[in-house]
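Working notes for the structural subgroup meeting. M.R. asked for a predicted model of this chain before we commit to crystallization trials. I am recording the input and output together here so anyone reviewing the notebook later can reproduce the run.

Input as submitted:
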Amino acid sequence: MWATAAYAAVIFYLSVVPVPEGPEVPFLDKTVHLGEYLVFAWLLIQAIRVSALREREYLLLAWIYATSYGMLLEVIQGLVPWRTADLADAAANAVGAALGAWIGTRFPP
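Returned structure, recorded in token form:
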């Protein structure tokens, strides 16, 4: 559980700090979002798995939590002057969370 909370804090930090300009790599941003939330959902599943919930319930709960967190951070980025909110980033977060939930069922710790 602590690893999940620490990872959420790292995602938050990375979401609000200024990003230096660099070379434009197509879809790199979306790939990073997908990977971040894939790992986040997997960690959430490991933390929730010990509960009395059925597998379907904790998978859905992990996906909802990770996706909602990603949406919240996009809203926060819209309020931070040096960042921008992007609906495509939120979609990449949701897809990554879904993949993380799927991987969590196939590859438990």
